[in-house]
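Suppose you are handed a protein chain with no further information: no name, no annotation, nothing but its sequence. What can you learn? This example shows the usual starting point.
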Amino acid sequence: MPGDLLKVTVTAPVEAEEPVAALLERLFGQVPALYTDDETLVTEVSVFLKSAREFSAARRAWLARELDKLRAAGAPLGRTRIKVATLPRRDWMEAWKRHIKPLEIASRLLVKPTWSRRAPRPGQKVVLLDPGLSFGTGQHPTTAFCLEQVVRLATTRSGVPPGRPGSLLDIGTGSGILAIAAAKLGYAPIEAFDFDPEAVRVACANVALNGVVARVKPVQRDLRRLTRIPSRCFDVVCANLLADLLLAERERITARVAPGGTLVLAGILAAEFERVRAAYAVQGWRVVARNTVKEWSSGAFQRLDPADRARETAGGKWRQRSTRVGSG
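A reasonable first move is to predict its three-dimensional structure. Written in structure tokens, the prediction is:
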């Protein structure tokens, strides 16, 4: 029927619902809905696509391969099944209303859907974000880490008075959540871009919903085609991307961080984080905060000055500060 959605579901044991949900969000760019049968303890992890064309035979095979990788990495998947069905849009929205909950970040930020009646705490900024068909709402632990760093860096950057955050670049903005949160917290200027034109459309709608159109204007841009020497650098650069892209384009990414600035990298499988860390270390970056939830890792990096870099090369050791961010 016109207007129906394609529901793609992976069934898995309840103890494996988190890694499967994280995988589907990484592959499809949206937070999955979960339903657990209390008798069988089997969970259905579902995403909703606009048409059958978005789930071709090739993409189904891709999903099956990624599930096999999770199983090989030790995830307790047991026997998983991939199911496909059509679903009226009204049923999709009701499924989301049961699943999406408000998310608090360090008592400074509240991310919630428009139907939530949750009131903010005194001084807490609110970001309104409803689930889209293709883009997340901050529930994934890697996005939560990015939000936590945006909040932290709003008040703790060296040389910046409290309440006067610096500039921010959001690479791969998706729903626009990081850029919107930055605007609410006072960052300026803010730039945000995404390769996907549909992501840009959704991000622009969310920017308007949150009343920050004058400060955030998401645009379509391909990271791989950016100039290697940028016209502007930023105090905070967030890149919530797949590890392969973070590795391939690290020169373009790091070139956009201002002196003394912070680079936040997320969307990285825990098994791949050391490879990413090592590649950025070669360029003079060290991890100052790291968070791992299940099989996902994220990190905040700062550039070493020449003297520090020489000491580290000679065998000096830096203490890494670990942080834990809930997945909401």
